[in-house]
Specification:
Residues 131-153 are annotated as: Disordered. The chain has 7 helices and 5 strands, in the order αββαβββααααα. It has helices at residues 4-17, 36-50, 107-123, 158-167, 172-181, 192-203, 205-218; strands at residues 24-26, 31-33, 52-67, 72-86, 91-102.
């Protein structure tokens, strides 16, 4: 099936979207973020203008427990398949991943919200009010553990770095907020070594626990 009209509509939306203003404010962790509402407020009028609908059609979720400081919480890892449809009848599918951790019953909601945010940020190359090109070193633990990915090369461009974060289930915006909450600079302009160490840290059990604990407290 041809998707020329659909692709043109997506390109038009990406071109008109503009910068997403961050209205979410986590005072406890001291950072602002682009919320699900921020994204939808900016994108929904453009979806209507260009005849686009995004519908979740398939969800594959796995559950386990995440250890926190004084308790355990439910953790949901979710793969969501979305159908992106155009008013012409053209459509395509896209897959996005999300992860949620919650002491109550909201882990699945957090995971699905994260998947949707990742999907639209990726498809429409959504910029936020942060300057991703500002030079700064990566947020890296003092003793980042060695592990899988030790030889990965992230020096050529940021795309491979973002892909590696996705592989370990981390959204870049969340990683950046994690850094800011720990009084660390943004990781966007780090060198190859710094990016590699960051990915290795997020792959480690300690890194996963620290990051998931942050996400839980932030939502």
């Amino acid at each position: 099936m041809s998707v020329g009209k659909l692709a043109a509509a997506l390109a038009n939306i990406a071109g008109e979207c503009g910068v997403i203003l961050k209205t979410g404010d986590n005072t406890h962790q001291r950072y602002t973020y682009a919320s699900d509402s921020d994204l939808k407020k900016q994108l929904q009028p453009l979806f209507a203008k260009y005849g686009i609908t995004i519908v979740p059609r398939g969800i594959d979720a796995t559950w386990d427990e995440a250890k926190q400081k004084n308790a355990t919480a439910a953790r949901c890892r979710m793969q969501v398949t979305y159908t992106i449809a155009h008013e012409s009848g053209e459509m395509m599918q896209a897959v996005a991943f999300g992860e949620g951790i919650n002491n109550g019953d909201k882990a699945a909601y957090v995971a699905q919200t994260g998947a949707y945010k990742y999907l639209v940020r990726t498809i429409f190359a959504v910029p936020t009010t942060d300057d991703a090109e500002q030079a700064s070193p990566a947020v890296v633990p003092q003793h980042a553990p060695a592990g899988e990915g030790h030889d990965q090369d992230f020096s050529a461009d940021q795309g491979s770095f973002f892909a590696a974060l996705n592989d370990v289930g981390c959204d870049y915006e969340d990683v950046k907020a994690f850094a800011q909450a720990n009084d660390q600079p943004k990781p966007s302009s780090a060198g190859n070594k710094g990016r590699r160490q960051l990915v290795e840290y997020l792959r480690s059990e300690k890194g996963k626990a620290d990051f998931l604990g942050f996400l839980e407290s932030a939502r």
